[in-house]
Design brief:
Layout: E1 3-6, E2 9-10, E3 13-14, H1 47-60, H2 62-68, H3 71-100, H4 124-136, H5 150-178, H6 181-185, E4 188-190, E5 194-199, E6 202-211, E7 217-229, E8 235-241, E9 259-264, H7 272-276, E10 283-293, E11 299-307, E12 311-313, E13 315-317, E14 321-323, E15 329-331, E16 338-340, E17 351-352, E18 358-361
Parallel strand pairs: 5-12
Antiparallel strand pairs: 1-18, 2-3, 4-6, 5-6, 6-9, 7-8, 7-10, 10-11, 13-16, 14-15, 17-18
Helix pairs in contact: 2-5, 3-4, 3-5
């Protein structure tokens, strides 16, 4: 791909600002779809209060926090929560034995009139063992609470209730994390570069998505939001529509092979000033794909973003499908490769390089 420098005036204005050279900006969304924004640093003296508020908000959404954690932290939380539960009630059982005077008596032959609350809890190790046996309903038979000690029965009921709640929460978190639709979205990939070229006689911005698994996705929709920096470094949001061939705005009913989505770059497009008139404003195009899984009906979502330097001009994606010798369709392994556009770009679509006038990709 080569460039040829020309001097051009669009709409009575000379394009003199560079298009491909811009100051470095932080991405809003990474290429794999994660949010790159981080909370700003708090002023001196207010950090403890802000940190405490952040922890409070996280605890209010404890379920979402646990489900979104990595597996290593979920397993750590699983082990730590049960150990903490056993240790807490081991302390309570030991305290009960101490207050009842069970630590200093012979449990096989207790004094006259003395009721042992839990048989054979004579040390903290025995109390921890009893807490573990109670929670896991092991029941070895050597330690058991006395029916004549109301405090032991009440503590036993509290431990069982809290233990059942903890087990239900942890089990539900494991199931929810395994069944998350986001894992299915990991098999969806976007092209690392978007291209601008001719499609059906019209200049279009094109991007490609591929489903890496053989299980099809249904009702695929692609939309985008353009984050453009205006004066004062304020980001303005504008929605963009992408269509697929002649489906228009209708969702793609079947996603099994690579799909190329198009956005016409006419004068009504929010991207027209930046890509075709050489406006130097920084922008980031965030693309969203939503689809439905065939087997479960769960929806999954995938997103990515494109900066100005990640858009290639006068290019097209190579065909993603081919035929083998038996006439069967085969998906190319080079599904994100691009080639020179067969048709030149519209003369109205120009590109500026380093501020040296307007350059059209030829």
């Amino acid at each position: 791909m080569t460039t040829k420098s020309n001097s051009s005036v669009l709409g009575g204005k000379a394009c003199s600002s560079p298009l491909l050279s811009s100051s470095t900006r932080q991405r809003l969304i990474t290429k794999d779809g994660h949010c790159a924004l981080r909370p700003s640093l708090c002023p001196t003296g207010s950090w403890p209060r802000a940190s405490g508020r952040a922890w409070l908000l996280a605890l209010q959404d404890l379920w979402g926090l646990v489900v979104s954690l990595r597996w290593r932290w979920v397993l750590l939380a699983f082990c730590a929560s049960f150990l903490a539960h056993w240790l807490l009630f081991a302390c309570l059982w030991y305290l009960l034995a101490h207050l009842n005077g069970d630590l200093a008596v012979d449990h096989d032959a207790p004094p006259q009139g003395h009721v042992v609350c839990v048989k054979h809890i004579t040390s903290f190790t025995a109390a921890f063992s009893f807490s573990l046996e109670t929670q896991l309903t092991i029941g070895y038979g050597t330690m058991f609470p006395s029916g004549d000690c109301p405090s032991a029965i009440a503590l036993l009921a509290v431990q069982m209730l809290l233990g059942l709640m903890l087990e239900a929460f942890i089990t539900g978190a494991f199931v929810a994390k395994i069944a998350r639709p986001q894992k299915r979205a990991g098999a969806i990939q976007f092209s690392p570069q978007a291209v601008v070229g001719q499609h059906q006689g019209q200049t279009c911005l094109m991007l490609r998505a591929i489903n890496l698994l053989h299980r099809p996705l249904l009702d695929v929709k692609v939309s985008a939001v353009l984050y453009e920096e205006h004066e004062g470094q304020a980001l303005y949001q504008t929605s963009l529509d992408f269509h697929l061939d002649y489906l228009g705005q209708q969702p793609c009913p079947f996603f099994i092979f690579p799909l190329t989505f198009y956005h016409p770059l006419d004068r009504r497009s929010p991207l027209y000033p930046a890509l075709c008139e050489g406006m130097p404003n920084h922008f980031e195009l965030v693309v969203f794909l939503s689809a439905m899984q065939e087997g479960t009906g769960d929806s999954c979502h995938k997103r990515t973003s494109y900066l100005r330097q990640e858009i290639q001009f006068d290019r097209r994606f190579v065909p993603a499908l081919g035929l083998d010798s038996r006439g069967r369709y085969m998906v190319s392994t080079h599904h994100f490769d691009t080639a020179q556009s067969k048709e030149p770009l519209d003369k109205a679509c120009v590109v500026q390089i380093n501020g040296d006038g307007s350059d059209r990709m030829e």
